[in-house]
Amino acid sequence: MTQEMETLEEFAGQKYKYGFVSDIESEFAPKGLSEDVIRFISAKKDEPDWMLDWRLAAYKRWQAMREPDWAKLHYPRVDFDDLYYYAAPKSDKTSPKSLDEVDPELLETYKKLGIPLSEQEILAGVEPKNRVAVDAVFDSVSVVTTFKETLEEAGVIFCPISEAISKYPELVQKYLGTVVPVTDNFYATLNSAVFSDGSFVYIPEGVRCPMELSTYFRINASNTGQFERTLIIADKNSYVSYLEGCTAPQRDENQLHAAVVELVALEGAEIKYSTVQNWYPGDETGKGGIYNFVTKRGDCRGDHSKISWTQVETGSAITWKYPSCILRGENSQGEFYSIAITNNYQQADTGTKMIHLGKNTKSRIISKGISAGHSQNTYRGLVRMHSKADGARNFTQCDSLLMGSDCGAHTVPYIESRNRSAMIEHEATTSKISEDQLFYCLSRGIDAEEAVALIVNGFCKDVLQQLPMEFAVEAQKLVGISLEGSVG
Amino acid sequence: MLEIEDLHVSVQDKNILKGLSLTVPAGEVHAIMGPNGAGKSTTSYTLAGREGYEVTSGAIRFKGEDFVDLPPEERAAKGMFLAFQSPIEIPGVTSMNFLKTAVNAQARSRGEKEPTAVEFLKMLREAAKKLNVTEDMLRRPLNVGFSGGEKKRNEVLQMTLLKPSLAVLDETDSGLDIDALRLVAEGVNALRCPERSFLVITHYQRLLDYIEPDVVHILAGGRIVKSGDKTLARQLEDQGYDAVIGQAA
Amino acid sequence: MGEIISIDRLLKSASALQTGTAPWAGALREQGREKFSRLGIPDRRRESWKYSDLALALTKAPKGTSVSRVPLALDGSYLAVFENGVFDAARSKLPADCIVPLAAVLADSASPFAKTLGQINGAEQTGHAILGLNTARMEEGFVLRIPKGETLSNPLHIRFNWPAEETADVDGRHVRLLVELEEGAEATILETHRGTPGFATVVTELRLAQTAKLTHVRIDQLGGASRQTAITLGDVSKAAQYKGFYLSEGGHFCRHEALFELTGDNANVEIDGAFLVTGESHCDNTTVITHAAPHTTSRQAFRGVLSGSSKSAYQGCVKVRPEAQKTNAYQMSRALLLSREARIATKPELEIFADDVKCSHGATAGELDMDALFFLRTRGIPEEEARAMLVEAFLQEALDTIERADLRDVAAGTITDWLSLHATEVTHAG
């Protein structure tokens, strides 16, 4: 083993930065899943009857469903009766009216995570154009949403979904479950039954959202599943950029996260959705970590609409996630930019679906997978051209980088065309990190760890440059950190 | 030979040519010069009959016949030839096979007899030799792996064999070094005769040093803004498009 | 017609075959029977049959016509003729001393082929229902063995005729071939299928010992009502080479699987394929190339020309095992859709467990290149002729990979014949 490799191994000792637990008194629903638990969750949120009925119908359906097993993922089956489906920081009031009422321990938690929730703090340090409004979701509830007033002035609704259900029931009823139907898949159906919180966004016609919107998810309580639900509606000719970040404490047991995200873009609207997923990945022996089973889908419902997914997936023990686009409107566009990094014993099965229904629809898929350690990293994607998708176009580039001889990189694209005039181009490569490049960096005095970070960041450049500024820098650092100890 | 009258052409619902008028008599060489975006490529594609180049009004007459509704292959059979700016690569079709198919198809369309294999080969070898096109190039798939110069020589070779009445040269000088340019120009000059006209479309005056035009037109904003003799090209080179177009306007 | 094809029915005569079978062969058959009964007839719920639902195809009455075609013949070749899945010795012209009928092999309790028959690429045989069925029912076929260092002097043409009147024979015909090339041996095989099998499974097992070399051209030219699943299994050892060319015109249900394992250093597999499918036909090319040794290389390139309301699939999987460092694998699939209703599904899969590898794949689907079409037309070539020229050029690139001129001519002749039969579909934008 070369000296630089040893240095890297030493570095691997570094722990997951966000692995701490906050000491916050929580209130739980009874363990396990039943109609009563669903009623409990619904009652906690003072939900109207239609919402409860929706949940119960989903639960009924879910009981008849089987956990999918087609992904290249191996893990002990989840015992769905051994989980808490609801955990919330105990507070006297159901929802704090302002930051002053939020539990200081919570504010401290977010501060430690680098997410400032105090608007004054944000305003003090940053130029107004770079402001980011944050919805902070802690276990099962949204604890605070910042910049609500500023957004309201622009007509933008940005609030916890639980609040939207009571304040904007007509919007929620009109769109909830229309992109990811209740019956869609095992995890999405489970989410429909038990979802606790998440963000709701509505951008009115013609409005360009004045700031980036962001949700920050934190799992804190143990043995608790997190089931958030996000619904974003961009009305005609509007624009929004939305960021999502996630972390969880370091725990020996696995924790379940099964979210559903639905995006609706009406005529001429554009939604840019960026994720940096950094759930606790488990330790170097594969113990612990989050099971991340997420259904994300966008519907380009109107002509000339556009939905762009960008994801940097570095966390979780298991990732099962396929942010997809239904390209319904004519000339609508879907994009998927992804970096998936797996190290140690992580397993990721992630990709996208581009369903071309409308004429002249376009999609672009750029996926970069990096596997290290004993991890398994799979790209799984579907491009489907329906018979009416005249003139549709897809381009897919899917590259995998292998670091170390004990990991795996897999590519499983499904390419289906039912339309002659639709053009599909797909390219994929798999190779090892270039020794020449590494050596070149080393000979210029760059240490091995930095060299790997540099090369991998170069490999991921096409995706990284899609991220909003605020995220790009963080993501670049994360790429380096995730691969620590991976060369040798 | 060619008369273009108040031609309006739109591409993807965008008007590119806005009242282009031009007459090229038999045996003359006309040059169209213009800055980027003036409508040069649109002019050549419209003349060749490319789909998507919609003539919204005006007329194109070739040897007195209305041309606008004819498909590209019929225009070719009637004597129109377009030398492409970027010749297309067709894997799986050898240059030789391609040339033979084209020569035969045009002969058939004109009701002439197709040349025999021997006659064709003789014709091809003679022409290829003059243009320094090797036997190997003829056996390779059309334009696949050809250098820029080889591709342009191949275009002139096609022109030589197909014997058009009007040859439109679309930016034939682009991507050529001086030697390649000279070789291509010599090939073109060898084809000049009283029955044949040329329309040389170019951004730079350089090509016109080798292929001397009778008339130079300046295309800007989708129409001819100025015409003159070959000194106009020189004037453009010295003063630049803005100055010359400015004077015209 | 309309009779339900069940697992029981397909296996009904399997037990009768046990008479006169050596114990090892009886055990092999029994394993096959057990495997097929357990797994059943594959349907689209099984991942690798997602685009080819055999269970459905066997319950639907096959439609489609066959037309007479130019004969498929290779001058100066040996000939092995199978008539409706039954070996026809009288019409065959076999090389001396290297072919043993399957029945003789299965009856021989000390057969040297007991350790290879049904054992080639074992990993892919596990869990394969149709291989189970074929093993349970295999009766006709032969073993070809070329001894060390020898070369089969002429190509062997294995000609399958599936008479149209047998379409109703849904119990199926199940043929098994085993080809063993000993160290340094070489052979060329042309395998052709003509006619309309009611339901046929043809399994060919290939064992290529060190530095052996096999050229294999297979042409499926079946009628529109035919149902066939053919499987070619290969074990390619050290420095051995397999070069395949597969041409298929589809059928009511027409699937070919190439399942190869590269088991020795420097083993090489190259497969080129072309499929020309029209009408309501179905055509499935499935490959699994497993790199199980270092420094192995594979290359696959498939081209499809699809018209009518046909449905085609190409599934190509490259697996690289942890020990197969320095693997180089390439895979390409191109589909040309000529009609409004034709469909293509492509699944080029990479499953890689070694890090020092170079693997890539590409896939395209779309119509003819409009720039090329315009270019040809500006040279005076009429649109229909230009279209035909581009389709031929597209296929020419596949043909060019066949090294032997005589084999290339047979394949080219088949393509030309198909193109002239379907000129209207090919040359009209429709």
Automatic annotation (TrEMBL), chain A:
Gene Ontology terms: biological process: iron-sulfur cluster assembly
Annotated ranges, domain SUF system FeS cluster assembly SufBD N-terminal: 152-208
Superkingdom assignment: Bacteria
InterPro entries linked to this entry: Fe-S_cluster_assembly_SufBD (IPR055346), SUF_FeS_clus_asmbl_SufB (IPR010231), SUF_FeS_clus_asmbl_SufBD_core (IPR000825), SUF_FeS_clus_asmbl_SufBD_sf (IPR037284), SufBD_N (IPR045595)
Pfam families with a match to the protein in the record: SUFBD_core (PF01458), SufBD_N (PF19295)
Signal peptide as annotated in the record: none
Domain SUF system FeS cluster assembly SufBD core: start-end pairs: 217-459
Family the entry assigns: Belongs to the iron-sulfur cluster assembly SufBD family.
Protein name as catalogued: Fe-S cluster assembly protein SufB
Species: Roseibium marinum
Automatic annotation (TrEMBL), chain B:
Entries under Gene3D superfamilies matching the protein: P-loop containing nucleotide triphosphate hydrolases
GO terms, molecular function: ATP binding; ATP hydrolysis activity
UniProt keyword annotations, A-Z: ATP-binding, Nucleotide-binding
Domain ABC transporter span(s) in chain numbering: 2-246
Family annotation (PROSITE patterns): ABC_TRANSPORTER_1, ABC_TRANSPORTER_2
Annotated Pfam families: ABC_tran
SUPFAM superfamilies listed in its UniProt record: P-loop containing nucleoside triphosphate hydrolases
Family, similarity comment: Belongs to the ABC transporter superfamily. Ycf16 family.
Name of the protein in question: Fe-S cluster assembly ATP-binding protein
Gene source species: Roseibium marinum
UniProtKB/TrEMBL annotation, chain C:
Domain SUF system FeS cluster assembly SufBD core span(s) in chain numbering: 171-394
Residue span, SUF system FeS cluster assembly SufBD N-terminal domain: 14-158
GO biological process: iron-sulfur cluster assembly
Alphabetical list of InterPro entries matching this protein: Fe-S_cluster_assembly_SufBD (IPR055346), SUF_FeS_clus_asmbl_SufBD_core (IPR000825), SUF_FeS_clus_asmbl_SufBD_sf (IPR037284), SUF_FeS_clus_asmbl_SufD (IPR011542), SufBD_N (IPR045595)
Pfam families xrefs: SUFBD_core, SufBD_N
Family assignment from sequence similarity: Belongs to the iron-sulfur cluster assembly SufBD family.
Name this protein carries in UniProt: Fe-S cluster assembly protein SufD
Species this protein is from: Roseibium marinum
Organism ancestry: Bacteria, Pseudomonadati, Pseudomonadota, Alphaproteobacteria, Hyphomicrobiales
